[in-house]
Amino acid sequence: MHKYEKIWISLGTASLAIFLIILGISAVHGGHTPAASGIETIHPEHIREDARFSEPGLKEATEGSHDYDLYFIASAFMYEPGEVEIPAGSTVKFHVTSPDVVHGFQVVGTNVNMMAEPGLISTYEMTFDEPGEHLIVCNEYCGVGHADMTSVIKVVNGGTENE
Ligand code: CUA
Question: Each residue of 3-52: pLDDT tens digit?
């Protein structure tokens, strides 16, 4: 009887220790990588020095493909680029950030509707099949120029040299 008690006590102690170790490791880890995966961070005061945002706009993800990265800076009270052309049929991954306050980034008529937050890069991927124009609007109140914050995506036929 005495022997079993000892075994149970040491088993209990061991599992408690293991639990605390796991908790400790995940807490430390969590501090470096946010729980929600895929969140990229950026220093809001140094966006221009960041290679990703030094020249915002459309960039080929891989040469000769229909995949693009599209970088947008949302600031009070404008988007950069103010207009962008995308070849019809391309898959575009949006990367949006803000150097100042929280802005919205809604591509009218699509599922793209996110926030542009200082310090974070919001991403969303979608394919533009149909030629046409999409207005980008800010849907987070950000100040006096809020309603003037717009950009335009123009989906065009046969726009790429590599076709
Ligand atoms: Cu930017 Cu509202």
Answer: 888 888 888 888 888 777 777 777 766 555 444 556 789 999 999 999 99
| pTM score of the predicted model | 0.74
Q: Where are the domains of the chain?
A: 1-32, 40-162
Q: Among 2.60.40.420, 3.40.50.1240, 3.40.50.300, 3.40.640.10, name the CATH number for the domain at 40-162.
A: 2.60.40.420
Nearest CA to ligand 1 atom 1: 103
* Residue 140 Cα: closest atom of ligand 1: 2
CA of 149 to the centre of ligand 1 (A): 6
HEC profile for 114-160?
EEECECEEEEEEEEECCCEEEEEECCCCCCCCHHHCEEEEEEECCCC
